[in-house]
Design brief:
The chain is of the alpha/beta class and 235 residues long. It contains eight helices and seven strands; from the N terminus they run βαβαβαβαβαβααβα. The N and C termini lie far apart (38 Å).
Amino acid sequence: MTKTVVVIPTYDERGNVARMAEAVLATPGVELLFVDDNSPDGTGAVIDALATANPRVHGLHRARKEGLGRAYVAGFAAALERGADRVVQMDCDFSHDPEDLPRLLAEDADLVIGSRYVPGGATPGWPLKRRLISRAGGLFIRTVTGMPLRDPTGGFKCWTADALRKIDFATVASKGYSFQLEMNHRAWQAGCAIREIPIVFTDRVQGYSKITPGIATESIRIALRLRFGKKGNGQ
């Protein structure tokens, strides 16, 4: 039987984790691993209580906040140690709809990406300026890297364990949101079978956004490094 572990990084998500656990576990057979970066709002304690009450919920506690990429690397490693055949990554703020999990898991590919920009995908509620910046950023990334993905920075994804091992995920340099881009690029370069399926991406309704204006600049910088081979530690 295929084992699936959903990895969700958390930082100050106390108001979301219980609802998210209930929603994710509505998909039969999946397990859930929260990776908490020592949230000051007490998210970690809520996760521990959920894990105590349900054997399908697990918590991984990290000493400090080191960036989304580092949290995912730790979560992927823990999921593989638990014997996962497939690893799903998603946000804790319900911008990624847990009801889409069965559709990701139904696809036969090394990497399945929930895409905002393939036919059927959408970003309701986004102002025009945000849509234009996001679309332009995706076009820039595709042009610079040659990677034929419509949503190269999307964060709702399902990996096979073999694909994660093949791309040596633990050595990915990016620490922040550009981790998504660098992981996708490695998968593409490694010849992994990649499939994009449409999702509706909605903004969070609980908690606060971790997105900053520097994220777009970071993605551009990482895309240039991937294209021209510049070395660096990532952000």
